[in-house]
Amino acid sequence: MTDAALGRVPREFRRSYLGEGSTLLSWLTTTDHKRIAILYAITITVFFFIGGAAIGIVRLELMTPQADVVSADTYNRLFTMHGVIMVWFFLVPSIPTTFGNFLLPLMIGAPDMAFPRLNLLSWYVALLAGVIAIVAIVTGVGDTGWTFYTPLSTEYATGHVAWTALAIFVMGFSSIATGINFIATTHMLRAPGMTWFRLPLFVWAMYAVSIVMVLATPVLAITLLLVMVERVLGLPIFESTLGGDPLLFQHLFWFYSHPAVYIMILPAMGVASEVIPCFARRRVFGYAFMVYAMIAIAGIGFMVWGHHMFVSGQSNFANLVFSFLSFVVAVPSAIKVFNWTATLYRGQITFEAAMLYALGFVGLFALGGVTGLMLACVPIDIHVTDTYFVVAHFHYIMVGGTVSAFFAGLHYWWPKITGRLYPESWARFAAILMFFGFNFTFFPQFILGYLGMPRRYQVYPPEFQAYHVMSSMGASVLAAAYLLPLGYLMWSLFWGRKAGDNPWGATGLEWQTSSPPPKRNFLATPRVMAGPYEYHPAEESPEAAGAPMSREPHRSQGGGA
Amino acid sequence: MSDAALREPWEDLHRQREAARLGMWVFLATEVLFFGGLFLGYSAMRVAHPAAFAEAARETRFWFGSANLALLMTSSATMTVAVRGARAGFAGMARWCLLMTALIGIGFIAVKGVEYHLDLDDGLWPGPGFALGMAPGQIFWGFYWVMTGIHAVHLTIGIVLVLRLALLSWRGLIGLRDNPQMPVVGLYWHFVDIVWMCLYPLLYLVGRT
Amino acid sequence: MSAEQPSRRAIIGQALVLWAVLIVLLAIAAVTAHIDLAPFNVPIMLVAAAIEVALVAVVGMELDRSPALLRLAAVTGVIWLVIMFTLSFSDFLTRAG
């Protein structure tokens, strides 16, 4: 865009989205996808720290083998609260509602989402769900664990199970609205020239995750509704004394909750696929296969839920089928890990904070995935079912994977969102601290679980104490690592250096508009002439293209062999 | 009129309509899975207890269920006329058909209300006083209440949406011809009819022989 | 947008045909349900319902003249339903005892 062209655009179109009004009302009534992203970001940050506080008390309790901090009942409520809040009020909405909302229209060259008012509505629905959740927490949250298994949830649990379930039920509508919006936006609002195979992988990730959200969430909604109906109205559905089948509940629940794992991890994969090529100055390796892999994960992810039920009394035949399919779904995930690694190969790698987080993501996700394969194997699963091994496995995926990627995205797009640069050294320090804190917390749990420590127990045999103490100490390191960015990012809002439009020299339409972007994102509808990740001409090395950060290559591209 | 229907971020109404229809179809896919969970539960329980389900299903009111299905089939026809009439520019016909559709929907709710009343009088609410005794029949009736209840909620929402369109159009506040809301409400209404078409054999026809 | 504008008669006529076929299907299902056709009772009522659903989806919801994208969205929900049923019943139907 030339200066002459800019000069013709009226001032109010050039003003950033942040300058469109500073009253609270202007934020609460906005239909701008960028502002809605900020609203979501504030909301999920609050929930992240509530869920974190709950597990902080749990970890404190587990420092000793006896019960000494909280009562058994409170202990059950605390881990339930941690699970419910972290899964539905942080992880599921985390990347899609913040970066997805902010970036999807920018990345495809659209002025806004397809249904801007539905987008705002989805936030209010999420807020309502959050309020119900907080009411349930204050008055005594359900004590069923996040899984609401019947008949515990329908008959025996003493907390406000129905309220907790209602909060999640309502939150589901927010997810569905977001999914519908993303799908319609991706189909209908791509800029001229933005063909499907020119879409950045983050957009593909948002599209894939929307499909999962839209097709899985309603099953959770009906499942929780049935639990509420049975508990509150007394209508028997799963009641085994009348011939009902608690395994029916588990099938329905996991039909959602396994794909929900992919709701959490697919967006993280999208973030890594943006950050790694940028800081390796490399085209992403195997773009088309990255796309197919994400679609395959979204599809096959629906066919593996029974691996959560290997010891539930499910038939041996079903165990066999689900075990096989669980191995199949590992293939596309492995393709992605290999492709990120191959993207790094002979790149011009620099270790900015976002890149450190992204590399951490790849490693931790790989470890989480490999232990997942162990769990897909029926004999091993029978040995470690409901132990800390499972807890460690899914925390490697969800915290090591998704939360690391969330922070990678936060640092990568922070200059675009706020127009400011954060202090790089602090950010690198936090990234490294988070990686070590995380492993310190969760690696001992693999060993604990393999030795037989069951999950959800407050009191345990003394021989496990050393591992529990290690884990709790790691958790405090992790907590510090989570609080650090809150501090320096806030600081950067006021005193950070101005970022400029494209501080990382990244490709992608979002970097071609100003930082922060104007209300309608682009002053003129962009026309897309090339594919994504053009960090160097095809078939050429980064340094031949005069990469912005020219350094000595490790070895000349294509030479030597 | 057509300009009033055009909203941010769209540049032309045709594309906005396409997006609205796509959005509604995707939403209906979620609805298929939402009701699908119920159908899965019903089917699993029926396979486990075929005799008890047949016996319990004999207690549903065949004529009420059939009359209601005929009503909704009629409303599907009137809704079809409304949507196609609106698109062809016959605003008056479209409005009358919308009104008729909504009235038929209210008729359904009325029939269903009487049926519920009779069911409750006969002690068909599962629990301690259940008329058919402690058997898997209670589970059938658990599904009966949940399935018909959720359907009724959906239908009520449909009635409100249809009446709203009809009233806004009568007062000249919206045009129906190019308005994206018209096909979208039509799709939703048809879907609610479809759900009843699936519920009818499961709840009213099982065990009649 | 479309080339030919249908007349009122044509619109009402098509809807009447749709209505008549639906009612006939309802009658078939309702009547056969009361006759003992041993293994065929349930298949008949389910097939009748499936035809009703297909008719409303194709004619009423205009899938016959919708873009491929909308048809795809419509079919997706059904495909996922099939996945849910198939894999769940791989357990329900194979349990020992």
List keywords for this structure.
heterotrimer; A: 561 residues; mainly alpha; 17 helices; globular; disordered N terminus; disordered C terminus; B: 209 residues
Describe this structure in words.
Chain A starts with a helix and ends in a 66-residue tail after the last helix. Chain A has helices at residues 3-8, 11-14, 24-28, 33-61, 72-108, 116-138, 152-156, 161-188, 201-233, 246-280, 287-300, 316-344, 353-376, 378-384, 388-418, 424-451, 465-495. The longest helix of chain A is centred in the first third of the chain and has 37 residues, at 72-108. By secondary structure, chain A is mainly alpha-helical. The longest helix of chain C is centred in the first third of the chain and has 26 residues, at 8-33. With 97 residues, chain C is mainly alpha-helical. The chains are: A mainly alpha (561), B mainly alpha (209), C mainly alpha (97). Chains in contact: A-B, A-C, B-C. Chains B and C meet through helix 2, helix 4 and helix 7 of B and helix 1, helix 2 and helix 3 of C.
Helical content of chain A stands at 55-70%
Tell me, what's the shape of chain A? Answer: globular
* Mean pLDDT over the residues of chain C: 92
Separation of the first and last Cα atoms of chain A: 43 Å
Secondary structural class of chain A: mainly alpha
Would you kindly provide a brief summary of this structure?
The complex is a heterotrimer of chains A (561), B (209) and C (97). Chain A is mainly alpha-helical. Chain A has helices at residues 3-8, 11-14, 24-28, 33-61, 72-108, 116-138, 152-156, 161-188, 201-233, 246-280, 287-300, 316-344, 353-376, 378-384, 388-418, 424-451, 465-495.
Topology:
The complex is a heterotrimer of chains A (561), B (209) and C (97).
Chain A lengths: L2 H6 L2 H4 L9 H5 L4 H29 L10 H37 L7 H23 L13 H5 L4 H28 L12 H33 L12 H35 L6 H14 L15 H29 L8 H24 L1 H7 L3 H31 L5 H28 L13 H31 L66
Chain B lengths: L1 H4 L7 H36 L1 H8 L4 H27 L2 H31 L15 H34 L10 H25 L4
Helix pairs in contact in B: 2-3, 2-6, 2-7, 3-6, 4-5, 4-7, 5-6, 6-7
Chain C lengths: L7 H26 L7 H20 L7 H25 L5
Helix pairs in contact in C: 1-2
